[in-house]
Amino acid sequence: MLKRLLMLTVLAAFVSCGGKVSSVDEFARLVGTIQNKNKEIGERNKEIMDAVQKFNAERKPDEQIVLPDSLMGLNKEQLKLVQEMVTKEQDATYKGLLNQVIDKNNQIQKLSSDLEDIKSKLPKPYVVKGGDSHYKVCFEYLTKEKNISADKANELLQQTFLADDVLEGFNIWLYYNDGVFGTFVSQGSVRISPNAFKNIIRKSQIEAAKASGREEAIKEMQGSEIPVEQK
């Protein structure tokens, strides 16, 4: 059973309730697809922002495009405005940038539709709120929703990879069946992915450790200095 649990945890794979996902391999494929779709959406959104910035660089303030405030590209009003600007733009370079924005936005909409279709085949995720931790969400899920004892829940969580920290808006996916528990974290509505967030935290911790180490080294050197005898 432990071997089976660890295998599912590594894959972040668990069988969905309601028979929507019929095998570990299918779940692993869906999980990987969600991660890839989120990554692609982020890349397309960055390309839109880059194109908009290039377009705005040489334009008057009243001719500039307002950058999208969503991870999912332009909203309907922004898209309509860009489409109108394309018909009026005479400069081929600027027209090309505007068309690029529209094309990337269309790609985002297609990716978003694909993403929602995939998510519909999985158990509904928990949306992280302020004060949540991956451990807390998993523990409450196991003890309150699955009626597992606190000891058993802790045992399962000690054998499961959990995120060190999570942001409000992240999605936490959870499953438990027949002694098998699985969980993973996805981006949800947040502008940064869990992996990128983890890397930022790790870098911050390393920098803090370096600063602390430098302070300790300076104290050590100061303490080891031989005082000069006063005459």
Give an overview of the whole structure.
The protein is mainly alpha-helical and 231 residues long. The protein has 2 domains: 2-186, no CATH class; 192-222. It is built from 7 helices and 3 strands, in the order H-H-H-H-E-H-H-E-E-H. The protein has helices at 2-11, 24-57, 76-88, 92-119, 134-145, 150-158, 194-224; strands spanning 126-127, 171-177, 180-186. The protein has a 3-stranded antiparallel sheet with strand order 1-2-3.
* Largest sheet report: 3 strands, antiparallel
Count of DSSP H/I helices: 7
Kindly estimate the percentage of residues that lie in beta strands according to DSSP.
5-15%
Compute the CA-based radius of gyration. Answer: 25 Å
Distance between the termini: 77 Å
Strand arrangement across the biggest beta sheet: 1-2-3
Round the mean pLDDT to the nearest integer and report it.
81
- Total strands: the figure is 3
Q: Please write the string of helix (H) and strand (E) elements.
A: HHHHEHHEEH
In the predicted model, the low-confidence regions spanning at least 5 consecutive residues are 1-19
Helix content: 55-70%
Class by alpha and beta content: mainly alpha
Net shape: flat
Number of domains: 2
Task: Provide key terms for this protein.
3-stranded antiparallel sheet, 59% helix, mainly alpha, single chain, 2 domains, 231 residues
How is the secondary structure organized here?
Blueprint: H1 2-11, H2 24-57, H3 76-88, H4 92-119, E1 126-127, H5 134-145, H6 150-158, E2 171-177, E3 180-186, H7 194-224
Helix pairs in contact: 2-4, 3-4, 5-6
